[in-house]
Amino acid sequence: xxxxxxxxxxxxxxxxxxxxxxxxxxxxxxxxxxxxxxxxxxxxxxxxxxxxxxxxxxxxxxxxxxxxxxxxxxxxxxxxxxxxxxxxxxxxxxxxxxxxxxxxxxxxxxxxxxxxxxxxxxxxxxxxxxxxxxxxxxxxxxxxxxxxxxxxxxxxxxxxxxxxxxxxxxxxxxxxxxxxxxxxxxxxxxxxxxxxxxxxxxxxxxxxxxxxxxxxxxxxxxxxxxxxxxxxxxxxxxxxxxxxxxxxxxxxxxxxxxxxxxxxxxxxxxxxxxxxxxxxxxxxxxxxxxxxxxxxxxxxxxxxxxxxxxxxxxxxxxxxxxxxxxxxxxxxxxxxxxxxxxxxxxxxxxxxxxxxxxxxxxxxxxxxxxxxxxxxxxxxxxxxxxxxxxxxxxxxxxxxxxxxxxxxxxxxxxxxxxxxxxxxxxxxxxxxxxxxxxxxxxxxxxxxxxxxxxxxxxxxxxxxxxxxxxxxxxxxxxxxxxxxxxxxxxxxxxxxxxxxxxxxxxxxxxxxxxxxxxxxxxxxxxxxxxxxxxxxxxxxxxxxxxxxxxxxxxxxxxxxxxxxxxxxxxxxxxxxxxxxxxxxxxxxxxxxxxxxxxxxxxxxxxxxxxxxxxxxxxxxxxxxxxxxxxxxxxxxxxxxxxxxxxxxxxxxxxxxxxxxxxxxxxxxxxxxxxxxxxxxxxxxxxxxxxxxxxxxxxxxxxxxxxxxxxxxxxxxxxxxxxxxxxxxxxxxxxxxxxxxxxxxxxxxxxxxxxxxxxxxxxxxxxxxxxxxxxxxxxxxxxxxxxxxxxxxxxxxxxxxxxxxxxxxxxxxxxxxxxxxxxxxxxxxxxxxxxxxxxxxxxxxxxxxxxxxxxxxxxxxxxxxxxxxxxxxxxxxxxxxxxxx
Length: 884
Prior knowledge:
Layout: H1 12-21, E1 26-30, H2 37-46, E2 53-58, H3 66-81, H4 98-111, E3 116-121, H5 131-140, E4 146-152, H6 161-165, E5 169-173, H7 174-177, H8 181-190, H9 197-207, H10 211-221, H11 227-232, H12 238-251, H13 255-263, E6 270-271, H14 272-279, H15 284-293, E7 298-300, E8 307-310, H16 312-325, H17 329-343, H18 347-356, H19 360-376, H20 380-388, H21 400-409, H22 413-427, H23 432-453, H24 456-466, H25 475-498, H26 504-517, H27 521-534, H28 540-556, H29 566-578, H30 582-595, H31 602-618, H32 622-637, H33 646-659, H34 663-671, H35 675-678, H36 681-693, H37 697-708, H38 717-733, H39 737-751, H40 758-762, H41 766-770, H42 778-784, H43 804-810, H44 819-826, H45 830-844, H46 849-858, H47 865-873, H48 878-881
Parallel strand pairs: 1-4, 1-5, 2-3, 3-4
Antiparallel strand pairs: 6-8, 7-8
Helix pairs in contact: 3-4, 4-5, 4-45, 8-9, 10-12, 12-16, 14-15, 17-18, 18-19, 19-20, 19-21, 21-22, 21-23, 22-23, 23-24, 23-25, 24-25, 25-26, 25-27, 26-27, 27-28, 27-29, 28-29, 29-30, 29-31, 30-31, 31-32, 32-33, 33-34, 33-36, 34-36, 36-37, 36-38, 37-38, 38-39, 43-45, 44-45
């Protein structure tokens, strides 16, 4: 471009309007293209003495993935608040909980003491489903120290009427952004353009103060031999004016600049290397730097100034001009760009340019080969958008693999299986090197299908193919192979764990190690979460420790309430029920429910019904427990293979039915069981419960005899504990207190190592234990009498009901520790601490930290100041309680 520099003027009135708007929660700048929204924001952000920390995000063109948007916003907030270096970098995941991510952003904003302004430019490019609804939630819940500025070409479906009514919404419109005649003259003078007073007025009239038109005119006028005539020769709509001006401007540029501007207009962003490839010349980066310095519609995208983009309207006009001048070059340039992006691992851009070149078969091949990796990198919605861009009515067999993955992600298992069959047939027709890649992805999807169906045979078959180490291939194939191998180990271990197979822990541990090695924290967390579930046959202290380790790693990455960690959450809840910590178990159950809101699989929901049934049964709510066990029984029947707890669930369902006053129905269901299921120790115990409900204690003793003499197969020793208690209850009904006491003592001895409470609560053994001499079993009796072992120092009756987690955080509020420091002390994420603090404020009806401390002391929820340090010296951490 001509070396004349276009000088930007100081639009003081608009900058002052932005300053005034910053006192409110949200400012919206809404105007069509070319009105100077980005230039205004940049001038406001870069002016000397800017008092606010700015978190700036430019939304990428046609942003389809909500996860990419929110991760970029979180990174911008962390960078602005200075916490980016100490925090775990946000990582993308195949599953994404947008609501949790909004909470993370809010927590980061709250933790920063100073004023933070979110600046989101080009918001109209955000097309991800549901993203605007969550953005609305973020904006309406911004903390007092935060403000948001949104720039968009048109009004969006943001439901901000409450903010408008409260006077917390400022709006700057297109009319506000138009240049005045005075500003038009200032722009011309600053750019060194000589134009008469009448000529300046006519230019302002013709452009109607439109910022882009004035800037284009100023560039075109810089070297024009007759500026006055130039101004009189154009008129029309903004678009017409812009097209005329850009043609005029290009005509006056040197050939190398014309060539660069036109040929690099197709990509959304460009660097020196890509620009050199598209222009066929070297030195493009220097030209781009000079164009930015000249304020010529070029903006750098990184601090190093290596990546650039054109202003969107300018790029659109350049593309139109390229198609007018060099139509035959357009597909060639798209193919060159696609090859460059593919070589540099930017697959989505490569596929978009291949589609734009009209090479649909090649685009289908690229998408089929890379869709799995894209989904693993959190670009699932982008994959869907690319898939929808293919011509309707044309079947590309390559895309069957992509359709299969999309169907499985939505829980449409039969539909996914049909697409996989087509994909397998297509793979057989491809060259050997590509066939191996496709077969790996097909095997991984079939393994996932088998895991969702509980089909161990199907999972094992695919796992054999995938779990061998990958060697002798390209680096790209080895990288993909390692990811697929980690996924295979995770899925194989998951199914093995659900069936109670011994290899589960080995495969999950191996998968976690591999995931850590290849830098896939999502897969590492998934493996560790499943390892916690697989450890349920171990002592509860080990199980709880593994679950907490998985949860801690998940929270470090902000996934503490994601589906990713659900198996560890529900397993931890289950161990709490087993050990009588019923209130704590209920809270972990609720957290699990939040984590699985978006999941369609039956495995975790099956476990949730089992654990909820256990909890209800222990609390004596037999009808509610029966509903939960019946739901678990039904879900288990839908699996291809019987799950590990099948006989336990059936036994508890029958026993609960009898305790709920329906022994006849229970006995009828018992008679309908297959012989193999009916012979298990768990069903023997259920038969004993039915007998007791029918007033037949001798029959109950007969039913548990095979369990007590180890003849009947049992899932674990818990079944034997339960059998001893049922025998004790039967002896008590027969009047043999000595035998009843002996059975109760044997049950207590067996339960001691894991501090089991559940069998005592579920069988209703309170009176049985009360008849025993001594106090060794007093803790169990406390639980059975309705006092939770986990309650500790209970608040007075009128105190707000804070959870144990909230109480732990509350005890740090009188200190000078920041939220991240409190999180480090408690080994949880800052996001979790922020969530607890918001809940504490709500329950105590306060608005700040000092008020919360004062109110908590009034309610005696906090120890006195003199005892505070002593309390912390003796504080027991969650890890200690887990037996670490």
